Each structure stands twice: as structure tokens, then as C-alpha cells.
Fold this protein.
Amino acid sequence: MNIFDIVGPIMVGPSSSHTAGAVRIGYISHKLMGEPIQSADLFLYGSFLATGKGHGTDRALVAGLLGMKEDNLNIPNSFEIAEEKQLKFSFYNGKGLRNPHPNTVKIQLIGISGRKLEVVAESLGGGRIKICQIDGLDTNFTGNYPTLIVHNLDQPGHVTEVTSMLGHKSVNIAAMQLYRDGRGGNAVMVIECDQEIPLESIKWLEHLEGIAKVTYLSLED
Amino acid sequence: MELGSLDVILKKAEEQNKQFWEIILEHDCRERQTSREDSFSTMLTMYEAMKNADNSYDKNRRSSSLLVGGDGAKLHDYIARGSCVSGTFMGEVMERAIKMGESNACMRRIVAAPTAGSCGVLPAVLITCQKHFQLSDQKIAEALYVASGIGMVIAGRASISGAEGGCQAEIGSASAMAAGAVAYLKGGSSYMSAHACAIALKNLLGLTCDPVAGLVEIPCIKRNVIGAVNAISSADLALAGIESRIPPDEVIDAMGEIGRIMPKELKETGKGGLAVTPTGKKITDKLHKL
């Protein structure tokens, strides 16, 4: 937490958790997608579901998916803008997550190229968020750093491939997490970095054997 | 945490012969690896956004629930008639606080300070002080460092979230931050800022978060008025040399403790207090049918 989490952010009301946090979740999901979105299914849980409408949570999420940030005055008009930009979206009552945080949303996205992405995120208050699942595997990151997410087979050597690439490109690792669904199964590494990763390095990773999917959150506009 | 208590901030200020706000500015420079100029210009941007929000109030806007909007204009007209019991200065403070609360509910652009629900307190107090006492933006930004330092200590030791600590953690914290800022603006010492903060927070201990239909509307908007007025009177007390008998950090800890033992029905769940009054329930049912 820094002083501009206390005085700030500049945001469209009415709620830092239900509005600003929701825009941010949408925005980070849009950045993770890395391409315009053609359709979005959004599942609301807990207080997002109970009081989201009155807080504009639904409009805030769609605004974020369109690439708006929390201070964009067009947030209240996001449904109309989505229609213009041919982004189809539907909202559902969330089910099936065990003990979700009060402000949770699951978002299933399809990009214009057909690329799919599923994100589960929580709004923690004060506009801060946590991305807690990507494509069904647990994660834990805030979206405050350039973040690399690599889905790979649970085999020796993939972590080295990724981290030595980062070393080569002078990208320092701020935090790193590893998860898997079972020994030898699907694994995911989440790496938060102090610098942006060059695009060609991301592309190079995508072609390595044993790497199933690479998702990158760039903070550059 | 480096600045875990107001006591540490006051000690550092005394040892280094600096003001409260400079200690916070330097902390920010280290924390975010940025320059003094950059930090200061970000703070000025926050104040600029507060002034823009104040200027762009629209009395015709209503919130999506249609429950709130337009009260700022009523208060404005009342004060313009010269009939405000608490005088023009306090009248303007109240007007700005209610307008900002309404703008927030109507999905306008505001500055969360520390939260969106309490966004009216600091700007109401700071903008009105600037106007009446001819203060520069530079001076107001310094006061915002005092406020954010107080807010950081409160967030670290207690909470600034209504869901965690009730409204005392939101309006209470905003009021404590604003009280410290006003004490600074009126020439008070760092010690006086800390005691203004303690007095303001003590006055709002136990304040519950029980908004009708879970919306940041009833009673949140009018609570911004109370937070702002309380900040001014608490600063006056501290500037007169009156101290909080309970030291500021202990008051903050008490707020955190009260928040922990407060029933969850009164912490932003819509299950107690005003939210479940007959009228509160009627409003909730009506909104759910929409």
C-alpha cells in the first residue's frame, strides 16, 4: 500500500470495491487477452451479485473489458459502447466456486482470433484486486506488475527455460509462483516482473515443446 | 512497516527537524522509487481532480436507484439566503461534502480518500479552507501528505474498509485525516495534527456501516457532512492546545478493536441497522424488483 492508495485513486463512483475494482478486473482481463474481445460471459458471486447492479458493477466490468480505466467517464455508458464495438456479453448468477470472496467474478472470454481465456478475480477493497484463477488453475497476483503466465506440462526444465530467457532480457523477477493440478499434469507459473518482457520473447516461449499457453499482462498502453 | 505509528512519524519529524508532511513525502519517494517533484505533482493531480469534481457537480443527476441527488443545490440556496445557523464557512464545508457524496453515487468522477464512500470529507474541508484563508495549491498538497500519512497509519493499524471496520473506518478515518490536515493548514505543529486526528476519530468511534440496499447512498452521503464538520471542530480543539487524553495511536488501535468486535450485520452486509428498518426494507425490495 502506498499513499496514493489512501488519497486516490481518481475514479468514477460509487464504490472503490464494486465499481473501481470491477473496472480494474475487466481491464486486466482485457490486457491478459491481448486482443479485442468478441464475447464475454460474466458470473457474479456474493456481494457482486447482491448489490452489483446499484453500484454499476456490471457496467464497470464491461467498461474494463473494453479497455477503459477506473476514471473513465464513459463507464456508465459501457453497455451501449459494447454494442457499437460488437462485444457480446451476458451476466449469470455465479455458482460452483467453493467459499468465494464476497466480491468475486468469473469471466469467460473469446477473442476475435478465437483465443479463449477464463479469469476468476476478487475485488479486495479500495480498488485493489486479485486474479485468483486463470483457465481453471490457481494464481495469486494483483496486476500491478508486468506479469507472465505460462501454462506448461509438469516436467523438469520449463522453469529454467522461462527464467533464463528473462535473465537474458534483463528482466528482474519481483515474485514467482508455481502451481499444478497433479504430478506430471498441467502446471502454471505466474511471474511478476519489474520490467516489461519483449514481445518476441513471449512469442518464442509459445513455440517451446511442453508449453501449452502463454499469457502476458503488459502495463504499457 | 516503516511508518507504523503516528508516534514514529512525530519522532522522525523532531529528530530530523522536518515537518510531518515532509516525512510522508520522503517515505513515498523511497517506497515508489520516485523523485520529490514526481511525488508532489501526483499529489497536486489528486487535488486538481478534487476541485474538478467539486466544480462539475450537477444538481439534475440522480443515482441509478433514483434515491439521491439534488440535495447539494438545496443546501447551496439555503446558504445563499444567509440563514445558515453554523455560518458561511461551515455552510460551504457542508455543501461541498454533500455534493461530492452525491456525485459519487451518481457515477461521476471523484477521488477516493480514503474510500469512494467517504470521498467528500477531505475536498470539502481543503477547498473551503483554501478559498477562505487564501492558501496556495502547494500548501494544500502539503496538507494532503499529512492526511495520507494519517490514513496510512490507520490502514496499517486498524482499517479503512467499511466491510472490515464499519463506517468509523471510512468516514471516521477520512475525518481524522482531514482534521490533521486542517491543523497543519492553520499553522499547527505536527503534534497538534496528531491530536486533531485522535479527537476526530474518537468522536466517530463505533459508527456502523448499515447502508440501505447496500448502496453508497443512505446514510453515506450525509455522513460525509458529519465527517467534514467534525474534522473542522476537532482541528480547532487541537489548535487551541487541547490534547486527546488517549494518545493518537491508542485511539486508532481502539477503532480497529471496535471494528473487529462489531457484529457483521453492521459491517456493509445490509443485514442490520438502517438497512432493515421498515422503510429500508421497503426500498430494498423495490430495487430488487427493478
